[in-house]
Amino acid sequence: MAEQQPDDNKQGVRLLGILDIKNTPCARDALLHGAGGSVVAGLVHFLATSRVKRSFDVGMAGFMLTTLGSWFYCRYNNAKLRVQQKLIQDGIKNKVIYEGTTLDPTRKSRDQ
User: Fold this and answer.
1) Integer Cα distance of 22 and 58 in angstroms
2) What is the pLDDT of residues 24-33, one digit of tens each?
3) Phi and psi of 8, rounded to 5°?
4) What pLDDT, on the 0 to 100 scale, is given for residue 1?
5) Quick check: helix, strand or coil at residue 45?
6) How far is residue 15's CA from residue 25's CA, in Å, rounded to a whole number?
């Protein structure tokens, strides 16, 4: 028997052949939120009207809106976090560079 080796190709599940859910940030969470939103929207509409086809349409609309809303919210927060991390990294780098020199901003406040 051939030995089973772990798969070195770390390819995740693809949705419609284009979106790699495992490696795309926020994709998994957005799809899970969308699924939950579609169930809630469709079920509430069905309980209110008892119209099956229209409830399915409302569920699909709920899926699209919830998925896109969750996707954009998550991506926006990730972009904000990256900007904050970049500012902190630059600040730490500048502190290391200027520490102990005449350009050190903390030294000026102590000398006065």
Assistant:
1) 28
2) 788 889 999 9
3) -75, -25
4) 42
5) helix
6) 14
